[in-house]
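User: Quick sanity check before I run a bigger batch. Here is a single chain. Can you write out its predicted 3D structure?
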Amino acid sequence: MYTQFFQLKQSPFSIAPDPRYLFMSERHREALAHLLYGVGGGGGFVLLTGEIGAGKTTVCRCFMEQIPPDCKLAYIFNPKLSVEELLLSICDEFGIALAPHGAGAVSVKSYVDAINLYLLANHAQGKNNVLIIDEAQNLSAEVLEQLRLLTNLETNERKLLQIILIGQPELRAMLARPELEQLAQRVIARYHLGSLSADETASYIGHRLAVAGAMAAAPFPRSLARRIHQLSKGVPRRINLLCDRALLGAYVENRHQVTRQILRKAAAEVFAEADGAPARAAPRWPYLLAGVMAGALVTGATAWQLLPREAQRPAAVLARAAVSAPAKAPVPAAPLAGATAAPAPVAALAPTDNRAALRELAALWGAALPAGEPCQVAAKLNLRCHQSKGGLDELRLLDRPAVLSLHDSAGARYYAVLSGLGEAGATLLVDGKDYQLSLEQLAARFDGAFVTFWRAPRSWRDEVGVGDRGPDVDWLARRLAQMHALDQPPANQALDANFQRLLRGFQLDQKLKADGVAGPKTFIRLIQASGAQEPRLMRPAPVANAVAGK
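Assistant: Done. Predicted structure follows.
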């Protein structure tokens, strides 16, 4: 309706996932890179999560356009299926021929056998196989387990099927459940797509207008960008709904630029709330033709409410708290013993630079890090940094405190020490104070990236394999010999095939990659198996009785 008035070729703010309109923010580039990595990742799961309307499906469509010709793709967008229905959908998507219906009922085994034969045939032709499941938060535990079993289809060299799960934040919470640990350990890459910043919101609007062919003066003044970000919370779909209705309002009022008043009316039309308060009955523009245009329910992001903190904060912290806190007062959590103040968002208290958190982590090891880059100065104290993106499953495996990379509801990054992890809850350590939260709350804010410390043997190198020799090889051989009640090997001997076999066995027992090469994870588990006194992670953690948003 308004496209000719603004000299546009088409509507720039459609909510359809058109890859041409994909705005490649830094977060979207990283999300796309994770999906492309999954194509050649050697099998397993790739996990892409994001808030409702963050652009997950658009990123997925862009990814599908970039898949190489030697990759066979299956895409399932409605995963509310039984196991049999899922397997049938996979066969349909890959074009796998099944036995005629007259040959009897098709069992799960028949489906799996047909899929296995198809994957083996593709592998023989040098082709990869990728299964994408959108809206994966709707998968049942039974279906997820069947998907895990499909990743067991493999040759000696590689797995035959790569599965990409795309879903809302609750998908991460699902995979954090203990009963799905086997599946979670097969996630080779994961990424959480957050909201846009205020500057990115302005660029996003300009990008979509440019793709739609905008040639004249911009219909959205730059001065409105921050207000649009505030009203839409930086969520692309909400930005589209708001801007589309604002352009419609400007057209009705015969204005070539959207004003603040038009934007306010548009927000009242498309959102159930504005600024956290119920919208007043605003007069509707008289041109509404037939029906009611698609609106958006408020998905107001509730602050991540944990346990208490002192009331007095520096001005900078109070400013961050004002940004992070919800407009409406949250329901306070029942305090644990010793709590003296009302709950406060950890996001407002935790540092936005991981250096402070790393120094707090080092204190758990009894080390006070001097000034400088934490990982570099810690190495002088024989504390090595190990960085990974393995999520809670890898942290359980390593069983040591770590600095987590977290994000708030607006996508802003902050850091906290995970000091305890139990079956139902976790403990975050921020500036000397413990905060309790559920695994679901943690999964909603944790994208899987962490840094932990470990003490390395003398002259440790990045990894040790067959043929290597030196003090770290001696240490490794002695530990393996001790575990198997063997004679202690002589010093400065090369790691031979026999000790590599023992190393592979240890790695298998510890659920590590059994490649016979000892890297940081293998050394960490060997050190723990020797009974070394080190900070440990796996201890019960209480959970707050009531948390806003639960």
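The two ends are 42 Å apart (CA to CA).

User: Great, the batch can go ahead then.
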